[in-house]
Write a structure and sequence with these properties.
With 501 residues, the protein is of the alpha+beta class. 38% of the residues lie in helices and 17% in strands. InterPro entries: ATPase_NBD (IPR043129), Carb_kinase_FGGY (IPR000577), FGGY_C (IPR018485), FGGY_Carb_Kinase (IPR050406), FGGY_N (IPR018484).
């Protein structure tokens, strides 16, 4: 009997990947290729864009390589990809302009205005989600104000996976995970007319794709089959987008896992908790993702900070990633009194609070401070941020961890100690693509053993000897944050940013 195989595609921000899994969830082959980001495109400060046609051609290459390496033809294709941003396409799903990435910061002043006007508050009350400069509504409104003729040429303002799905199948659709933020109406299955009205986008509602739950299902058309080197008619599913897809791939997004959480230590720091109610109370921050199942939500706090903050410090110090493990051994817990607020993203912060002017800060420096202390301070600062996010998101159950940062056992120990809970290491590789396959199979009625596919690869237990130290350190971190936030919005801070925000 021929071996069963399933193809998962993950069109990420910096890498397009294809993974072939067998029926037990083992990876038969994984291929990936880096793709560039276009900064300050068209001379626009803060612009971060991507070339959809390049992504699509890269996708075809990695799929063909993965299939050749696996030596087996997949029986289905499941797509996931980066969320947010604004991906404009015509009726043939061809890009009408470069996509605005979720990293795009040109709409920062617009978000500032929405915050002052109470729009962010109202949108959060509708959908359980808020907005930052790279959010779809902010990007779409910026285009509406600055490039209305571009929107007039478009048929769809969707997401990366939606355009890929459209080109592969000819179907215009999105799934509930993307649709629920920020235009969601709170049901998980519809758009909010109130949100569209308050953001001044009611006249662009026609650009939002139909929502199909739990995920859109189609078949490879001839052009899609030629691109991927597969047979026309092969089943294709789209969604959820990469963050909730990782929740499925890590085993925390399924019914019966309410309260469980996922931590993704990647370029951003993704913190997500499975809830059975939509949260619309409290300070607007993060977002709530519909799973496509009634009364099942993923309360997400995707901090803009993550390994990118650590990469920045390593570059400034002139050292490599291998120094992280050594530094965490050399510098004791507490980093000899050095603390860091790691909010280094150019577009500010979106979770567990929203501030387009959020900035980083290092305190506690002395003549005795060593390089290893700075590295540990960043690692601890990110762990404190994760704890802050999970406190806001209401975690009550286990935490599964995934992402590139899991390669450092010493850093994972820091996270376990600060969070004070065992960290279960998600089954690798390609947690997002794995989740897309599982979600797609469930939608098509194909039975796969979810427990087997998502069984963790190991557990890191917290060290109880560090509990008191990190409890005190977390309180201190929150005090530093409380003191710093008013300073981000002073006249001097705005002047330093060139009054662009």
């Amino acid at each position: 009997m021929a071996e069963r195989a399933f193809l998962g595609i993950d069109a990420g921000t910096s890498v397009v990947k294809a993974a072939i899994f067998d029926a037990s969830g083992d990876a038969l082959a994984v291929e990936g290729t880096s793709i560039p980001l276009i900064h300050d495109g068209g001379g626009v400060s803060g612009a971060v864009e991507q070339d959809f046609e390049l992504i699509l051609s890269t996708l075809g290459d990695v799929v063909r390589k993965a299939v050749a390496k696996a030596g087996v033809t997949p029986e289905s294709v499941a797509i996931t990809g980066q969320g947010d941003g604004c991906w404009l396409a015509d009726e043939e799903f061809r890009a009408v302009r470069p996509a605005l990435s979720w990293l795009d910061g040109r709409a920062a002043s617009l978000v500032d205005q929405w915050k002052s006007d109470g729009v962010l508050h109202d949108v959060f009350r509708n959908s359980g989600g808020t907005m930052f400069p790279g959010a779809p509504a902010a990007c779409l409104k910026w285009l509406d104000l600055n490039e209305p003729e571009t929107l007039d040429r478009a048929t769809t303002a969707g997401y990366a996976k939606d355009l890929i799905f459209g080109r592969l199948t000819g179907i215009r659709a999105t799934d509930p995970s993307d649709a629920s933020m920020p235009f969601g109406d709170g049901t998980g299955f519809g758009y909010s007319d109130d949100t569209l009205d308050k953001t001044g986008l009611s006249h662009r509602k026609n650009l939002l794709a139909p929502i199909v739950a739990p995920v859109p299902i189609g078949e490879l058309n001839d052009a899609g089959a030629e691109l991927l080197g597969l047979t026309a008619g092969t089943p294709v599913t789209s969604g959820p987008f990469d963050f909730p897809a990782c929740g499925y791939g890590a085993g925390v997004a399924w019914p019966g896992t309410e309260g469980d959480a996922l931590l993704i230590v990647g370029t951003t720091l993704g913190c997500m908790v499975h809830q059975n109610t939509l949260v619309t109370a409290g300070e607007p921050a993060g977002f709530s993702v519909s799973t496509g199942q009634p009364d099942h939500w993923l309360r997400a706090m995707p901090a803009m900070v993550g390994t990118a903050s650590l990469d920045w410090l390593l570059k400034m110090l002139g050292v490599g990633v291998k120094e992280v493990q050594e530094a965490l051994v050399a510098s004791p817990p507490g980093a000899r009194g050095v603390n860091m607020l790691p909010y280094l993203a150019t577009s500010g912060e979106r979770a567990p609070f929203v501030d387009p002017l959020a900035a980083g800060q290092i305190t506690g420096l002395r003549l005795t401070t060593e390089r290893s202390d700075l590295i540990r301070a960043v690692c601890e600062g990110l762990a404190y941020t994760a704890r802050h996010c999970f406190d806001k998101a209401g975690r009550t159950g286990r935490i599964v961890v995934a992402g590139g940062g899991t390669g450092s056992s010493a850093w994972m120990q820091v996270f376990a100690d600060v969070l004070e809970v065992p960290l279960e290491l998600a089954r690798n590789p390609e947690v997002g693509a794995r989740g897309a396959v599982l979600a797609g199979a469930a939608a098509r009625g194909v039975e796969l053993d979810v427990k087997q596919w998502t069984d963790p690869e190991g557990v890191i237990e917290p060290d109880p000897r560090n509990r008191v130290l990190y409890d005190r350190g977390y309180r201190h971190q929150m005090e530093l944050l409380h003191s710093a936030r008013p300073l981000w919005n002073t006249r001097a801070a705005l002047a330093a940013l060139g009054e662009n925000r």
